[in-house]
Amino acid sequence: MTVAGAFIANATIASLGRREWTRDVDFALVGHQESWRAAADVLAVLRGPEHTPLPDDEIKDILPWIPPRAVCHVEVGSTNGAKARGLYIDSFIPPDRLEAANTLDNVARVRGAAAYAIKAGAKIVSLGGFSSILMEGNFDQLPERHDTVFTTGNTLTVGFIVQGIRKMCALEGRNLRNSTLLIVGATGDVGSGCARCLAPGVKRVLLSARNVERLRRLAAELQADGVQVEIATDLQQFSTEADMVICAASLASPSLLLGRIAPSAIICDAGYPKNLSPSAQMPGAKIFFGGLGQITGGLRFAPDFHGILNRHPFPDVVHGCLLEGMALALERRFEPFSHGRGFITQERVEEMETIAARHGIYLAPLYNADGPVDPLLERMNQPVSGKEWYAR
Amino acid sequence: MTGELIAAMNYASLSEICDDPEEVAEALEHSAGERVHAARFAAEGRKIGVDVANNVDAMHWNRLRDAFLRCIAERDFIACLIVQEIMLESFAVASYSRVGKVAPGSLGKTFASISAEEEEHVDHAMSILRAERALDVQRFDDKVHRLHLDVMTTLAKMLAKECKDGHCEVCHGSCVKPSLSEVSLSAAELRGASLQQYLKTLDALGLPGEVTLTWVAQLPV
Questions:
Q1: Which stretches of chain B score pLDDT less than 50?
Q2: pTM of this prediction?
């Protein structure tokens, strides 16, 4: 952007902020930056090119003090021509404070972001990624709301994870029915939703999580439907290796998977933050980042945070949890579609996928830390939308 | 202490442009209150053997005083409140309350109680400023932005971790910032808390958060 362009952009921010503030806010997206690099990029946009970027140490000093607030306006388009307007609200959780020790502080930040969304008059609020993980069992801790509803967005996340697994199977010529599926973080909302959707269609399911009681309950539910289930709090305890893996919780170390999965396993990294990448340790594994969707009806940020708030190698790719709020806003269905933990069923996932698809929101092209995983995309060396992939 | 003396001078100047006798009395009362704060800080210093330095003509304070006097020259009562109560007091409330938490004995109590008194001033001003904003949102927000560029830029330089414009002419070259760690504080923490307080105050006034975030992000560090 030129200096003049930046000046115009910043002038527009100031006036647009005031002008649009009074308009209807259909949706709010609550998120935070996954890395200090991402936080630096956000602050660089806000400072504009006429100011020197903040040094890294200053960013680390300043960011934790910023109260939750809107960073930009978002407009999403449907392929049917409808539009919905919203806000991206950053809770400003510092990227290095995601551990359990900071839960109280982080919940307070998400509550602050939620209060901001309510004050802005958002009709529906999607809790993105880690915010959703923090609040899925604590919905009662959200501030009192008037005409605002909250969704964790987990139903669409599950939908895109399941679609991603099926797409990878198709790409790799695998038969899901003969697979042993391991779900790490199986008792969380996303993990248990994936289990309900995929377990009936695989040979055997291995469920791993920290809470044994919850594992037993989920296993009993799946076994009642005739699914072969094994549970363990430690991956090393499973009697067999998996050839299909969903990491719905970030692993303390990716090496925990070593020895417990088939050398050519398909691995969906659906955790937060995503920390699995193709490595020398698992050279044959097919890893992809799961739970991501792509908007084909248009996505606009003001100021322009394209590629900064959505840092993916393909255009208009967004986390499923955030897309759920946008899809519901486009559908004018302002309801808490996903809330609490353990209520995601295959029927609800299909309903949400149908809503999303009606507005041109599809599974994003699959990729991992090394780039696209679809050989067709690699050959073309250019982004292809989910819709185009489906067409092919 | 210099900040309290500047505040006392600012309120005294404010009394000169008030038309309503009640407002004049209130401004003078605030001025006297700020002088008492300065005296209390000086007394606390004496208790621990410190001669608290002050210099209302020091580089940054002089600029802040000039900014306020420009508002006085324009007889802009609202601008005066914005500078003193929203900008300068955000810095005072946030930093005093943090020192109040870590300083021992009567020193901590003094900081905490002065912080609480300053907060009361801010609350009082907020109701006036909210009413003024309701009359013309755009005009009010533009005024805050203009004053922000003038005043907060200077305050941000004062609050920077390192004094890049040479020594501040208050501490006579013996800067307090490096020794803050001795009382479990840091310049970064005081700056962070001050900017947080400022943003929250602007939120409470109703200014759009994404706009004020941009303002603060563009401040010097």
A1: none
A2: 0.87
Closest residue to B221, CB basis, from A18, A48, A58 = A58
pLDDT above 90 coverage of chain A, percent = 65
A12, closest residue in chain B (CA to CA)? B211
Is A387 near chain B, with CB under 8 Å?
no
The ipTM value here is 0.87
**Across chain A, where does the E strand assignment appear?**
27-31, 69-77, 83-90, 124-127, 149-151, 180-184, 204-208, 229-232, 242-247, 261-269, 286-289, 292-295, 299-302, 317-319, 361-363, 367-368, 371-372
The C-alpha of A316 sits at a distance from chain B's nearest C-alpha, in angstroms, of 22
Q: Mention every residue, 6+ apart, whose C-beta is less than 8 A from residue B129.
A: B78, B81, B82, B85, B86, B140, B205
**Tens of pLDDT along A96-129?**
998 888 889 999 999 999 999 999 999 999 998 7
- A-B Cβ pairs (cutoff 8 Å, strict): 69
Which residues of chain A have a CB within 8 Å of the CB of B212? 69
| 3-class secondary-structure state, position A179 | coil
Q: Could you report the per-residue pLDDT of A129-159, keeping only the tens digit for each?
A: 788 878 877 777 888 777 899 999 999 999 9
**Given CB atoms, is A48 within the 8 Å cutoff of chain B?**
yes
SS3 readout for chain B: CHHHHHHHHHHHHHHCCCCCHHHHHHHHHHHHHHHHHHHHHHHHHHHCCCCCCCCCCCHHHHHHHHHHHHHHHCCCHHHHHHHHHHHHHHHHHHHHHHHHHHCCHHHHHHHHHHHHHHHHHHHHHHHHHHHHHHHCHHHHHHHHHHHHHHHHHHHHHHHCCCCCCCCCCCCCCCCCHHHHHHHCCCHHHHHHHHHHHHHHHHHHHCCCHHHHHHHHHCCCC
What pLDDT, on a 0 to 100 scale, did the predictor assign at position A280?
Answer: 65
- Residue B119 is predicted with a pLDDT of 85
Do B221 and A51 make contact, defined as CB atoms within 8 angstroms?
Answer: no
Give the one of B145, B196, B218 whose C-beta lies nearest to A51's C-beta: B218
B39-48: per-residue pLDDT in tens?
998 899 899 8
* Mutation for A interface: B149, B213, B218, most A CBs within 10 A: B213
What is d(CA B10, CA B123) in angstroms, rounded to the nearest whole number? 18
Query: Of the candidates B192, B210, B218, which has its C-beta nearest A69's C-beta?
Result: B210
> With an 8 Å Cβ cutoff, is A268 touching chain B?
no
Q: Over pLDDT 70: what percentage of chain A?
A: 88
What is the per-residue DSSP string for A270-305? -SSS------SSSTT-EEEE-SEEEESS-EEEES--
Give tens-digit pLDDT for A357-369.
Answer: 999 999 999 999 8
Residue A371 has pLDDT above 90, yes or no: no
Q: How far apart are CA B48 and CA A373, in angstroms?
A: 68
Distance from CA of B202 to the nearest CA of A (A): 11
